[in-house]
Model the fold of this input.
Amino acid sequence: MAARRRRRRAPPLQCCATVDDRGAAGTDGLDIRELRLRPDDVQSLAGVRLTSTLRTAVDLLRGAEWGTAEREATARLVRLAGADAVRASLEDSRYTVHRVRAIRRLQEVVAEGATAAKSSPSTGD
Done:
């Protein structure tokens, strides 16, 4: 008799909502956090409001999860936003929770990027 396989449920999609948007709470498959977002924390893409590259990088650096997927995504975001901008944002007083963790992770991501750049073959441009 074949063993029954349990179908694993996908983890909930993590989302942010402003404290004024209470309509999203309780939506199946979503893990929603209420935040006070500044206008520069949000950008619109095809009518969908998303957190900016900088804000998303900071959120990932401060988050509880830190596996390969988070580290790789954060490295890309840090390259786009700029490590100095991310570091400056982490010094903002609103990011006091998990700041030390985030700064340590940022240092790791930047160091890994520098190591990868040194080991990459030159294109000879």
